[in-house]
Amino acid sequence: MKRLGFILICVAAMAMTSCGMMQSAAGSNTAAQATGKACGTAVQGLYSSYKSTGKVDLTVGNNLTNALALATAYTELQNNKGNDAYRKAFTTGLIASSAGLITTANAGSFVDKLMSSVGLGNVTADKISQTAATAAAIITLLNALKQ
Fold first, then answer.
1. Is 8 among the domain residues?
2. Range of the domain at 71
3. Which pTM does this prediction carry?
4. Mean pLDDT of the chain
């Protein structure tokens, strides 16, 4: 009887551990997908503005908000570099929310360009300004999407 109780406790402990691990993995994929969606929406907004005005004006509220979303995506991708599951979930969200600008055909190269956009590395809400590095990084990303 004691052996059966011990076995049941071991099974319950393994089940809780495995459920916790699955929940953690699912949570990070959900976060990655949400960040990808925010990035895709930001890219769409910046691309539309850039296409109509020919520049990235970070004094415009929507452009500023979208630049911060791109910077957040850059930071999150850097923090999860080498995590293929994160990148895949991020890319899924990115494609879903970019209104056709980013497709399965160009998503990989776009994410690579985003990850190498050093001009987005130090952008935060309290530090963002019309800097050449930030604007250049955004323009490089948008030029990759020219249609």
1. no
2. 26-143
3. 0.73
4. 79
